[in-house]
Amino acid sequence: MNTTKGNPLALLPFAVFLATFLLAGIVTGDFYKISMLIPAILAAVVALLLNRQETFSNKVEQFSKGAGHPDIMIMVLIFLLAGAFSSVASSIGAVDATVNFALTYLPQNMIIVGIFIIGCFISLSMGTSVGTISALAPIAVGISAETELSAAISVAAVVSGAMFGDNLSIISDTTIAAVRTQKTKMKDKFKTNFFIVLPAAIVTLVLLFFITLGNTSGVTAESFDWLKIVPYIGVLAGALAGLNVLAVLFAGILLAGFIGFLSSDYSVIMFMENITSGITGMAELILLTIIIGGIVAMIQYNGGIDYILNLLTRRVRTKKGAETSIAGLVATTNLATANNTIAIITTGQLAKKIADDFHIDPRKSSSILDIFSCTVQGLIPYGAQLLTAAQFGEISPLSILPYSFYPILIAIMGFVAIGTGFPRFKRPSVT
């Protein structure tokens, strides 16, 4: 069915998906008011109605193959375990313990810098930027109330820390999607991505230090249990050691549950309830992933992927140009969907084709996808991250943007990595 030049009409489902989502957001004034499942289902219907030369049964079969592709199913399994781990760890007090640990040992005159560092660790451990913001933003707002610092600076530090982990955490849905679509290893992507964005984190620390110089906070840390931080450390260590991410997450759930059992107020029933709530909390993302997998399969079958590939790369002659096109593709999609995970899932297959055609290492292509999607997600005022932070601070999302150093800096470092060809890989990545 596919031709070299492709078929632009095959992209109609994608256009319907974006148009429906944007229209719903504009009409309601809230881009998260209506579930993204609605535009996804409409797009799936359109995908199945296209190409009248094929029987409906054959089109359903093609859709189902895409929805049930092994990469999609592995992604689903990881989402399930990641949701369960995050829920159990949070319920035993791991987040509170981490926050109070940091507040205990940080100097009072570096409290905003400390908030950024706490945000980095929590988001790296939890794999959710919105969850990190929900946990830390109230503390940041309280700090701003006790100092001369504006709430915008305080919550911006939280958002920056949250996006650090969103981009790097092994249980972040963006990282999972980037790794699976580009067919690389989690630890390899982490190392590549980390060294690209490390300078951005360091510069963010320096900027936050200087703009808050001379301000102190009277925030008093509460007591904490060191043991409750162990599940996060264990998951991070296991991932960096190169263990299978499914095994790491399963072990993390058991470890968090065991530590919870050591306390008098945690039971097996609570453990099971936390696992269930964590899994069900990922339900919408899982359904979206499956449906989009089917839509992308239909778009590819009808020639849409080939059309975009030719459109994006017909004037690209170099690897740097191809990497830039991947960055632009995921960033533009993220602007439209206001969801960096969906942006990666939607564009991942096309990015993989571009990477293969121009011999881009999958460690680099997965990092580019994750970096530029997180840049957009951390800066759009209608995204969940800034909306959540603004709500806690009782300020406008736009007032946070001037201090959103990290999302801006990772984009700069991403372009530097593309322009300089960093990092230099000594061996090809294999899954």
Automatic annotation (TrEMBL):
Question: Keywords on this record?
Answer: Antiport, Cell membrane, Membrane, Transmembrane, Transmembrane helix, Transport
Principal location: membrane
Q: What's one Pfam family here?
A: Na_H_antiporter
Q: Where are the transmembrane segments?
A: 34-51, 72-93, 105-124, 193-213, 233-262, 282-301, 403-422
Organism field = Pontibacillus salicampi
Domain (Na+/H+ antiporter NhaC-like C-terminal) spans 14-210, 227-421
Residue ranges annotated as coiled coil are none
Q: Where in the cell is it found?
A: Cell membrane
**InterPro entries assigned:** Na/H_Antiport_NhaC-like_C, NhaC_Na-H+_Antiporter
Family in the record: Belongs to the NhaC Na(+)/H(+) (TC 2.A.35) antiporter family.
* Protein name (record): Na+/H+ antiporter NhaC family protein
Identify the domain of life: Bacteria
Provide the membrane topology annotation. Multi-pass membrane protein
